[in-house]
Write a structure and sequence with these properties.
The structure is a single chain. This protein has 1 helix and no strands. The protein is rod-shaped and about 75 Å long. Helix content is about 85%, strand content about 0%.
Length: about 50
């Protein structure tokens, strides 16, 4: 009933969906890490050490 091109399209679609879910799951930690480092660096540089 279904040919190979339909199966290949199904595999490709599911692969794209799987990669998309993985990217979304790892996006938040990948953004939070550098943001925390930048915040720490800014606080360190802007802290008045003479006070």
């Amino acid at each position: 009933m279904f040919d190979n091109s339909s199966r290949a399209a199904d595999i490709g679609f599911n692969t794209v969906i799987g990669v998309g879910v993985f990217m979304l799951a790892t996006a938040v930690p990948m953004v939070r890490g550098p943001a925390a480092i930048q915040t720490r660096l800014a606080r360190t540089l802007l802290t008045d050490r003479a006070a």
